[in-house]
Each structure stands twice: as structure tokens, then as C-alpha cells.
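Budget justification note: compute hours in this period were largely spent on complex prediction jobs such as the one shown. Inputs:
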Amino acid sequence: MSESTSIGIVAPKIAHFSEPLALKSGEILPQYDLVYETYGTLNADRSNAVMICHALSGHHHVAGKHSEEDKYPGWWDNLIGPGRPLDTNKFFVIGLNNLGGCHGSSGPATLNPATGKPWGAAFPVVTVEDWVNSQARLADYLGISQLAAVIGGSLGGMQALQWTLAYPERVRHALVIASAPNLTAQNMAFNEVARQAIITDPEFYGGDYYAQGVVPRRGLRIARMLGHITYLSDDAMGAKFGRKLRDGNIKYGFDVEFEMESYLRYQGDKFAGEFDANTYLRMTRALDYFDPALPYGGDLSAALAGVKAKFLVVSFTSDWRFSPARSREIVKALLDNELSVSYAEVTAAHGHDAFLMPDPHYHAILRTYLGTVLSAADDASRSAADTGVAS
Amino acid sequence: MSESTSIGIVAPKIAHFSEPLALKSGEILPQYDLVYETYGTLNADRSNAVMICHALSGHHHVAGKHSEEDKYPGWWDNLIGPGRPLDTNKFFVIGLNNLGGCHGSSGPATLNPATGKPWGAAFPVVTVEDWVNSQARLADYLGISQLAAVIGGSLGGMQALQWTLAYPERVRHALVIASAPNLTAQNMAFNEVARQAIITDPEFYGGDYYAQGVVPRRGLRIARMLGHITYLSDDAMGAKFGRKLRDGNIKYGFDVEFEMESYLRYQGDKFAGEFDANTYLRMTRALDYFDPALPYGGDLSAALAGVKAKFLVVSFTSDWRFSPARSREIVKALLDNELSVSYAEVTAAHGHDAFLMPDPHYHAILRTYLGTVLSAADDASRSAADTGVAS
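Corresponding output:
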């Protein structure tokens, strides 16, 4: 295995798009910015680009640090860098913050050009389909007609799948990790509780809290605490916290008694101080709405009939949010269409969050699969690029 | 099978206890009321009494109706009545509202005799052990030295188990249903999110909201919505709601889109209008704290060494809140002590809530087991009653 290092110091960039974007809701976003980062070098025939699609609370800062002083690197730094499974010596990697986000791309907290004030509640409800359309424009902007691969975990995996549906000629490989072809009723129920916690916070002001100088911190905190429960498996929580008391003895009250409560409150407080509530609402709705089989009466195989990409689908045994059974639904629909698909069900204790962890087995699978992506055999599938927009 | 009917019209009674109750927290409740109901007739030798222990949001009104006009009967009416599995032609059944409750027993919303104002935050944190001690006093009050059985589901099952630990001579049978020997970290995490939603509601006022003329309705609503997710299995939610849209088309916003959202909001609103938030906090803490194995270094078998009762333990395959594995922990510890235990793992789709449903297989198990309780064979285990307080 080659030596593996972080990509080092990186800097975000902003792409402005002045061509209106028609959204699935029927609304039109007249213009917008996307903040993005790139790692590695685009090769001469522009065939080595990999797009990273982020999940609910993710963003463009996927790898490296913005300065030597940064305490933590980007959120998927363990995956991306020289010698890492997604090797920046070979690939040109693109991370972006999705529309509606709160890390630099146009979203509820950014200024609405029409009013000069924050969009707030007026920022449209965006979908996975809208994101992928905006990501395709970012690829255009970067002169990339065809992506070597699109990679995403969770909500990011839904975007990777959507890429192969919306732009079958523009993506050779899709890596769909810890994802699902749609949410279950239970998944949606958790989203609804989180949203209701935010919306009923007296400081939400119908989504226009920016003008009030407040944020619905209480609601966002509850939403994040709840989220954390669903990201971890019961076993992982048991192993990490069990029933450990924080101070060794029971105090019979409602302050922190158990270690796990301290962890949840910390995570909730931290998130509520950083993330935008309107973005949280939109990210969860994008999850709810994604359902490519819906126009096909629930027949996912029919929905994937036009797909051309090759797939790696990965699930984790302890992921009860997006269980392996949901990944197998995707695998089955791909196989029904005689598409090339590799599937790995990784034994991991971490639950849904396992997709972000540097589990050796998991990373070996990604390394091996990505090793095939720019191989000679892969070239055969690349001809479609010649018809692309930027070739 | 005999004809089965509801017990009919019933009326609650109040028992006042002026002897102080020492609580596990170290606090002392100087006096208190317990509201209770009874169904059936106590037999001459007072050997046919069955106590029903309620779960988080339960109460004393277990069976029958308070008036012909009542829309719904008590919460376990399908179990209790003439000819029903817990047959009131044979048994004298006692339901009560636990201390700290909000249905008539002393609790945060009742008047503190010392101040003449609602207890509010000053009402002590009560535990499963405290409840069982207060229930034993209710048995004394009713002239019952030994219960034929104690029955409870979920948190109620913990009380049934605690009865056999605290009063081994005073209970012949324990029916522990959909329960666990303690909460997992994940179970406790859900409780913590629910409590934080309540406590951070601006109308909570540190628990003394009664004086403000408000209730922390928003927080209680979120707590209940979350609770409902954990009471149902993912499959049950899928079967009941799936991804069904309420109005048939997607509106791309944050009002109700899916049927499931409408259900959760309705359940949350209803509960928030009826239940007391301070009670909710205390019920969840009682769940958190229950852990009979704790003083034995986690060794449940050692904790149950003094138990004498016979057990029926029932779990449900789709219960992910208190999974069958947790019930099997209890069964193992009972068997380690060479106690008599019957165990049934019922195939049911409803999740945790299955313990309240009239599933024929489940009810047949209860009927069969309860059929043995007053049999001649059962008499042999009854001699201990002769040493009891009221014999």
C-alpha cells in the first residue's frame, strides 16, 4: 500500500451561475453561487474527475485543512489524499456545498439578490434532483463533460444514484454508500420530529429569524440530538457510553446523570451554534422527497432502466437508519437492468456513521474499486465523454 | 373459550396515605394519595388479587368505562373483564396511577400540602422501587397480604420484576411483558431528547409552569411524537403509512405532506393537551434509573437470588425498543436461580405497542398462563401468605 497523507492546505472557491435553475418544485432560482473545493489535478483529457456529494450536514470542505491552525481536516479527509483510497495523485476530486446549504452556497441565510436581505423562508425547497442539476452545471463550469465517478454516503448516495439517472452519459461510476432508494416511514418520522422541534421553536419566526437577530437554537439542538441517535447503532452507543454515570453517583434529577446525556447535549449545543435551521429543514425534506421509483409505480428496476454507470454499493451491518436491506434494493434493481454492480456489506459496529470511519475493510473495498476506475478496462466505457459538453 | 365482555362501568377511588414514604433519592414524601380502580371481587381468603402496573403514560383506568358516554374504555380493556384472559369472574384486579403521575395520584400538578400550591419542580424524582413500595402499601390498604400476580408491560414490567425482588413473599406470579432489566444507552438517549425538548421549552419555567398559567406544550408534543416512533416498528409504520401523501401530490414545503406526519402531529397535539410535562420527565427518569443488577456489578442473576415468584416473560419480535434479547436476559437470570419461568416470543408486527394489542396468539398465552394461577397446583405456593400483614 502506498504511503498515505492528507492533501494539506486547501482553499474554497466560489462559482457564480447566472443562468436560472428550474427546480422540481416549479420555482426558479434566478441565479446562485456554489462554493466548492478541488483536490488533485484534472488530467489532459479531463477524464479523472470525481464528485463528492455530501449528506445532511456536510459541505464542500471534504479534505485537507484551510490553515495549519485548523483543529480538524475536512469531513472525509480519511478517504481523500495522496495514497488514500481516493488517491489525489490520480484523481481530480470536487467537493461542493449544495444549494440551500449554510456553508457558502446560496441558501436561506445568504442574500436574496431581489431584496438584498437574507432569503429566509423564501429560499425554495430543493431536492436531490435539483442538487444534481446544479452539480452538473458545476462540472460544466470546470470543463468536465464526464465524471469518472460520483461518490456519496447517505443523502450523498442518493445524489450519486440520481446522477446516473439524470446524466447517464456523464458519469462512469457511482459509489452509493450507506444509502437507500427512498426513506422508510420511520426515517421520515424522525425527520418530521426534528423539523417540528425547529418550526415550533418560538425563535423560528416562520423561518425569518435572521431579521430578528436570533436563531431557533433550542429546536436545532433537539433535532441534532435526535439525529445522533439514528447515526449510531444501539451497540455502538452501548460500547461507547453504556449506562456510565458522569459523576459516579445518581443525583435523582434532570441535569446530566449519564455520560451519554452529556455527549448528546454537547453535540446538540455545538451543532446549534454552527448550522442553519432553515438548511436543516431543507436537507431533511430533500431526503423525504427522493424516490426515483415513484413515477414508475414503485418499480425501482423500471426507474433505473436508462442508467449506464457501473456501481459500487456499500452498506454496514449495524446501520439501522439505512439498513443493508435498503442497499440490496438498489443492487437488485441494477442487476435487473444487467448493469455492472459490486456490493459489499461491511461488518461494522458504528451504525450509519460507519461510512465516515476509516474502517480498514471498508477502505480496502473503496481502494480496490477506485483502482479499477482509471484502468485500461475502464477506458472502454469512456467514449461517451466525446459527446459531452466540454470535450 | 368463554364469552368475553368488558367489565362495564367502573369508578376510580382514592386512598390517602399519611405515613411518610422514604424514597430512593433520600427524599421523604410526607403523605400522598393514590388513585386506583378495582375490577372483580376479592375472594374470602384474599388470594385472587392481581395488580396492574402501568407504563410511561398509563394510569389507573385500566378497564371498563367511567360512563356510558365514554368513547374509549380503559387502556388494557381487551385483557381484563368477564371471560377475558385476565378474567374478572376469578380475579380481583387492581389498577393504580403511580406517584408522580398526572391522573389523580400525588404528583407535580397536585397540591403540595406544605405550601397549598402545586408541587411543580419540588415533587421528588420517583423510581420503580418507590412505586412498588407505594403499591405494597395500597395492597395493605386493601387488606391483601399476597398478590396472585403482578402484571405490567414495558415500564410496568419493570415494576412487576421489582415486586418479586422487594416483596418476594407477597407475589406468587409476575407477568413481565415487552420489558427489560434496564434501559440501553439508546433507550436512555431517546428519553434524554424528549426531556430536553420539554425542559428547554420557554414555557417550562423550570417545572413551575402551573403558576404561570401555561404548559410546555411544544416540548411535550415533540417528546410524544418521538415516543410514538419508538413504540412502532419500522415495518408497522410502513404498513400503516408507508410513503403515502396526505393530499396525493407533493407541495414542496414544511406543512404536512405525508400521512405519517399528520399522524405524528395529531398524536403529539393530543398528548400535549392531556398529559403533564413534569410527570413525563419523572416517568422517563424512572425508566433510566431502573437497574436491579447495578448493586451486583451488573450480575442480574445475583440480583434475582432472593426472588420466589413464578414468571411469565413475553416479548414481541418487532419490538426494537425493548427487544426480545432483553427479555431473554431476564429469563436467563431467572433460570440461573432455578425459578419457574415461561417465556414466549410472540411474532407481532406492531413493535413495542404490541403489548397493548389483542393479538390472538399473545392473548392465548396470557389466558393459558393466568389459568394456572388460581389452580390447585398454585395453592402449594400460597402458604407464604399466612405470614403476610393482612391475613
